[in-house]
Amino acid sequence: MEFSDLELERLKKLQRLRERGIEPYPARVTRTHTNQQAIDAFAAQEAASDAPHQAGGEAVEAAVVGRLVLVRPMGKASFAHIEDGTSRLQIYMKKEEVGEETYEMFLKDIDLGDFLEAQGHMFRTKTGEPTLRITQLHIISKAIQPPPEKWHGLKDVETRLRQRYADLLSNPETREVFRKRAQVVNALRRFLDNLDFLEVETPVLQPLYGGAAARPFITHHNQLDQNLYLRISFELYLKRLLVGMYERVYEIGRDFRNEGVSYKHNPEFTQLEFYAAYWDYKKVMEVTEQMVAYVAQEVTGSTQIEYDGKAIELGGAWQRLTMREAIKKWAEIDYMDYPTAAELRAAIRARGGHAPDDASWGKLIDGLMGDYVEPQLIQPTFLYDYPRDISPLAKRKPDDARHVERFEFFIAGMEMGNAFSELNDPLDQEERFVEMNRTEDVEAGDAHPLDEDYLRAMRYGMPPNGGFGMGVDRLTMLLTNQQTIREVILYPHLRSSEK
């Protein structure tokens, strides 16, 4: 490993510490308070005594730890700031109180970025800042690499994403995004648990992928000499559990799709899926409205948020449009007037739109939705009743053979989730699998492979049910006002660095 000049200088300081008998990476640390606890305890004591504590008076004793982020030497005394996971705390030391050796160590061999343990008592300075007056100081981790940009914050996007640790240590706003992400996941769990859902875990490595139309990642099990797939969806495994007499199940976990990367796509992403026996897609719509509003309230304190400069209200009843209505409104095409793919393709091209030669009727409709409708859906909107040939796991509409009971919901121009009245007729399901495998390219991720075991499970009898899937990353983007999925995934996938 090659070191920069600054790193070499820090390595010399590390060596000097060890030569003086000081271990820069000790095995034990003393900590009685987090920084915030020390500040809060001091404030509580002040309130109880009704008088601020100045230097020298009886005060809160504390041993705190944290990363050194600021130093202000003043001759025989120094102020500094250390930061832990709770807050930043000012520390103050005098040479005569900590001893000459410790004070000289601090001035000569301690650098920004080092982790320190400080013991002493709390007081308030003349400027009013709660401060720990140190009696003992120890180094507990020497930083060899200097902190990014002298704590002004790491701004280069490429470096921030590749070195997330540096991003987190220098940018508090990044840490806050991921705290809120954790709150999003916890709130989703609370909401579903309160509706008597059971959280389960299904296989990540699967002998046959399914539940979505996507290209999978393939791996190989050496002992079994068998190819396996990283899951692209939880759906077929969760619905097997309905056959096994669980009525409401959900899973929050990772899915993997070997496809493109964009501002809203990452090959590895977090998904929520739930399935509820005896629900249909209209019931799932109602629960979706309630769930998203609940999570927003829990995480942000309000159902009204701002995303990309737009005010969005997540509470109340959302807009509902059939796909046909939405496409007629914004693309100015009634696709039911064009019952074949060739006719619809010609109509789209006459409108000036994009219509691939090999796209089916349903995929042409889906393309119209993406090109003309999705960007218009800023406020929460359900689009429902999708073409049957792009929805192989959804139940047909009773009065319309070309459409199924499916919806997607959109917020801020993004698709956020997908739901069905789930198909529970095993014969219809097998027919659709066979049809898709005949007309679509399974290897390219355009169709579901035929899953015999899933069909076997269905033949035991599957209750009518409503199913739902939502990208947790996109919901987090929405609630933290981040315009790219990479900002809400701690370690997003990036191209290999040339460095």
Task: Explain what the structure shows.
There is one protein chain. The protein is α+β, with helices and mostly antiparallel strands. The chain folds into two domains: 142 residues, Nucleic acid-binding proteins (OB fold (Dihydrolipoamide Acetyltransferase, E2P), Beta Barrel), CATH 2.40.50; 259 residues, 2-Layer Sandwich (BirA Bifunctional Protein, domain 2). 34% of the residues lie in helices and 26% in strands. It has 15 helices and 19 strands. It is elongated. The two termini are 14 Å apart.
Which segments are poorly predicted (pLDDT under 50) over 5 or more consecutive residues? none
Tally of structural domains: 2
The H-level CATH homologous superfamily of the largest domain, spelled out, is Bira Bifunctional Protein, Domain 2
| Fraction of helical residues | 25-40%
* CATH classification class of the largest domain: Alpha Beta
**Shape category:** elongated
Q: Which secondary-structure class do the elements indicate?
A: alpha+beta
According to DSSP, the number of beta strands is: 19
Number of helices, where a helix is a run of at least 4 consecutive DSSP H or I residues:
15
Radius of gyration: 29 Å
What is the arithmetic mean of pLDDT? Answer: 93
**What is the CATH topology of the largest domain?**
BirA Bifunctional Protein, domain 2
Largest sheet: 9 strands, mixed
What is the terminal-to-terminal distance?
A: 14 Å
Named CATH architecture of the largest domain: 2-Layer Sandwich
